[in-house]
Amino acid sequence: MGELVFVGLGLYDQNDVSLRGLREVETADFVFAEFYTSLMSGFSMKSLEERIGKKVTVVSRRVLEDENGEQILEKALRSKVAFLVPGDPMIATTHVDLRIRAEKWGIKTRIVHGASIVSAVMGLSGLQNYRFGRSVTIPFPENGKASETPYEVLAENKARNLHTLCFLDINVDKQRYMTVNEALRIVLVMEEKKKEDIVGLDSLAIGVARAGAEDVIVKADSVKNLVDFQFGRPPHVLVFPALKLHFVEAEALITFADAPEWVRRMAG
Fold it and tell me: Which whole number is the average pLDDT over 221-244?
């Protein structure tokens, strides 16, 4: 019987993986990795391979989604395979799908969790985890047309007085990574089209760049001020807080995210 172990790499570089994760990789017969679901901007494959003493095969979206991960599953039928993924393994639905397929093939699966951008954003900003609603990805516009889904999710969460975590689109093949600035402009264009008063220039937003890195940036301010704020290198993530904040959240944003003093008036 084979085995497939999903190992979370964490947020920033090869040093973020847990000791348990390293042990699983070191004892694996084959090691695969993917980097199309998220960007680890400080990651060095050479350093990781030197540390674990074996070669890592990087697979593309096509291998996992179009070919159903069969390259990985065939190895895992009779061998121990470690599959390395950015962040926490089961945040991306494509990894859940692979695990389901493995179990149906009779392959034992296990998970070694890693730091996730979801928990990192909460910790960096001070926003409380139970006050987040449905999260959403803001994709790059296709043929000049932006998806309306992010706006709809923002509207749902605003109506429930919940925070919204927005993942920002990446295109690894084109080395294109959406910035907080681009995402805000996309949302503002959608507001201009829908006119439902969900997000305006005076709305509070939080941009996070390079979570997990020493040069992480966490900045909370009005949309009009964040649109031109320089967050630096990707990856970026965006949060739209609820209409009302807990007083601890307001204090945390001022302390940790350099939020303006008027944020205190949102507490209540």
Answer: 97
